[in-house]
Design a protein that fits this description.
single chain, globular, 18% helix
């Protein structure tokens, strides 16, 4: 029997420390809560310097509150820029580092910021087939050449805007 998502942990795993000397970009994913985790992942992008900045889509304000998200910016209740740690559990599931990039300068962070504001589906959310959190991360990957990564097959919605 699964417990309610409200009873799961979303604390930091303390596996990604702050970086005082360089900008680190992480593409993270984690299994979804309950049985959904057997078939699908949630993805997000984290910029780690002397603080954390995450870019992700969360479709429910209650979920965001449970994650203790202190929003830096939330233009439409879906697209979140927040400063939770990069390595938080996702409703009890450990995060996976899919991609790690040592940025030589701050230009990737600036381009992430630009693409955060320009995301074409910021008013829409559908779990399947998208647009969803994976569609958003895939959009960021396609628009920033240094993020040379393909989201895993379980990142449902990753190809949403290709069709």
């Amino acid at each position: 029997m699964f417990k309610s998502w409200k009873d799961t942990s979303c604390k930091s795993t303390n596996s990604i420390p702050l970086s005082l000397t360089e900008e680190m970009i992480y593409i993270m994913h984690s299994k979804l809560y309950s049985w959904r985790g057997a078939i699908a992942y949630h993805s997000w992008v984290s910029v780690v310097t002397d603080s954390y900045t995450n870019y992700e889509i969360i479709d429910n304000e209650d979920l965001a509150k449970h994650l203790n998200i202190d929003c830096i910016e939330n233009p439409n209740n879906l697209t979140f820029k927040n400063n939770r740690t990069a390595d938080n559990l996702w409703f009890g599931n450990y995060p996976i580092v899919g991609f790690k990039y040592h940025a030589a300068d701050k230009s990737i962070g600036e381009r992430l910021e630009h693409n955060f504001k320009e995301y074409p589906y910021k008013e829409k959310y559908r779990s399947i087939p998208g647009p969803n959190s994976n569609s958003y991360v895939s959009y960021l990957i396609r628009n920033i050449s240094e993020l040379n990564y393909t989201l895993p097959l379980k990142a449902l919605g990753r190809n949403f805007d290709k069709f």
